[in-house]
């Protein structure tokens, strides 16, 4: 790395200008997107299937194996405990063994654990397997975030995050019907119970995806056989320069990253986001059912797919165009504020029998928080590199994902405290923290990362805006 990379802010912004506009860099990025992104989306899609398929097996596990409602609820939540505990160690091991091997290992391991649910016999086995599933899957999401931060320059990063995020709405749209088809197939054409077939088939999907990932993913541009020498050089030099800027600007090492106030700042933002995400998605079928006056079934399933379909396009569009610091800050702030407002409106609509307004509000909320996610990750990846990135990104994701554990508990507690027929106050509580995330995202204007000067803004614009 050139020593000038860690020089003054003006030179750090100007030095890679020619490289950022290089046709070799652009062609290298296009090739890398075609090679890497489909595999990463597939991995995340399968991960979401294995996270959410227990909802389709709940009745079968209770009737066929005697799994109690209490054990089911504990198992649903304990996944996030295992996931949070092993996020940072998994990320550090990814740095040691390389993304290609470690991401494949994660997929294969969680696939085997997911398939083992087919052999569940009692409460204890179910709870243990849910914990192990969280342990096995730990590191996938932050590992991919770190992987993308090492492959793609800051200017392109939100677009890559957004493409990766597309797996979430896509899995929500097709995951339910796919699980239903597998259950029906198992009941009709195999000697096994339908839910057993579903667990086993979806677990094996993850194993196959992991094996394929070993042959598709590449640890770094310098090792990519699909890139020309000029493309490798352009991508390597841009990323080396950016990483040198990060090293001079952010925490270095594991402990400094864990103690970094900026890391914890973005951890709080991500926690607030996950409260909105999981609090909405966990109860989306029931909320839609209440709004349209139908039992959960194919009609509810079709209506439930609408927010995710709209969100898919919104996420991609915003991610593609959020290529300057000002856009990321402003659009991120707006996305969080819209998320909170839309959740509040959906709660009010449900309490007052306004079905169309309720569905529209849910659609806006889902679209907004899908846009907020990729933008949120652009900030910490602009100042974290090396072991600090492995630790910081793992910490943000692990603590943030505990929102998935807290959200249903918080919603239930609020509904018990202020009982209503529609559960309006529980829904409203989920939107409040989104406004805190909006305020904190706007607050990022007071501490910018030097790597942000490598965006499409004018050199040093971020500092001039804050008077630094």
From TrEMBL:
Main localization category: membrane
Coiled coil spans: none
Domain of life, source organism: Bacteria
Cited SUPFAM superfamilies: MFS general substrate transporter
The keyword Ubl conjugation is annotated on this UniProt entry: no
Transmembrane segments: 36-54, 66-86, 98-119, 125-149, 161-185, 197-218, 263-284, 296-319, 331-349, 355-375, 382-403, 423-442
Pfam hit, one: MFS_1
Membrane topology: Multi-pass membrane protein
Gene Ontology MF terms: transmembrane transporter activity
GO CC entries: plasma membrane
Keyword terms, alphabetized: Membrane, Transmembrane, Transmembrane helix, Transport
Keyword Heme: no
Protein name, entry field: Inner membrane transport protein RhmT
Organism: Pseudonocardia autotrophica (Amycolata autotrophica)
């Amino acid at each position: 790395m050139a020593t000038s990379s860690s020089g003054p802010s003006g030179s750090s912004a100007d030095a890679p200008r020619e490289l950022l506009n290089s046709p070799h860099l652009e062609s290298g990025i296009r090739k890398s997107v075609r090679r890497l992104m489909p595999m990463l989306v597939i991995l995340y899609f399968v991960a979401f299937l294995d996270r959410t398929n227990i909802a389709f097996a709940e009745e079968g596990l209770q009737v066929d194996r005697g799994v109690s409602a209490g054990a089911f609820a504990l198992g649903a939540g304990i996944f996030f405990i295992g996931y949070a505990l092993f996020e940072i160690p998994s990320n550090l091991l990814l740095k040691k063994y390389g993304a290609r091997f470690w991401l494949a290992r994660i997929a294969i391991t969680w696939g085997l654990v997911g398939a083992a649910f087919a052999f569940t016999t009692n409460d204890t086995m179910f709870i243990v397997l849910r914990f192990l599933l969280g342990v096995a899957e730990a590191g996938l999401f932050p590992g991919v975030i770190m992987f993308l931060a090492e492959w793609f320059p800051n200017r392109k990063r939100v677009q890559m995050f957004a493409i990766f995020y597309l797996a979430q709405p896509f899995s929500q749209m097709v995951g339910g019907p796919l699980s239903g088809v597998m259950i029906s197939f198992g009941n009709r054409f195999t000697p096994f119970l339908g839910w057993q077939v579903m667990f086993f088939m979806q677990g094996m999907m993850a194993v196959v995806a992991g094996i394929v990932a070993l042959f598709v993913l590449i640890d770094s541009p310098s090792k990519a056989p699909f890139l020309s020498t000029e493309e490798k050089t352009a991508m390597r030099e841009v990323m080396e320069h950016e990483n040198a800027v990060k090293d001079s600007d952010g925490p270095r090492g594991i402990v400094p990253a864990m103690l970094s106030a900026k890391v914890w700042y973005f951890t709080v933002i991500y926690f607030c986001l996950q409260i909105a995400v999981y609090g909405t998605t966990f109860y989306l079928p029931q909320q839609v059912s209440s709004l349209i006056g139908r039992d959960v079934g194919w009609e509810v399933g079709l209506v439930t797919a609408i927010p995710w379909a709209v969100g898919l396009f919104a996420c991609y569009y915003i991610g593609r165009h959020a290529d300057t610091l000002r856009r990321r800050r402003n659009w991120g702030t707006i996305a969080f504020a819209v998320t909170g407002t839309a959740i509040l409106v959906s709660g009010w609509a449900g309490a007052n029998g306004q079905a169309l307004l309720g569905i529209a509000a849910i659609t806006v909320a889902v679209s907004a928080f899908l846009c907020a996610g990729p933008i949120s990750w652009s900030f910490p990846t602009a100042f974290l590199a090396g072991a600090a990135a492995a630790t910081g990104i793992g910490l943000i994701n692990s603590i943030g994902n505990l929102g998935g554990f807290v959200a249903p508990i918080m919603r239930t507690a609020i509904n018990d405290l202020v009982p209503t027929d529609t559960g309006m106050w529980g829904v409203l509580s989920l939107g409040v923290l989104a406004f805190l995330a909006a305020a904190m995202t706007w607050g990022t204007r007071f501490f910018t990362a030097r790597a942000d000067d490598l965006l499409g803004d004018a050199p040093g614009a971020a500092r001039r805006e804050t008077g630094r």
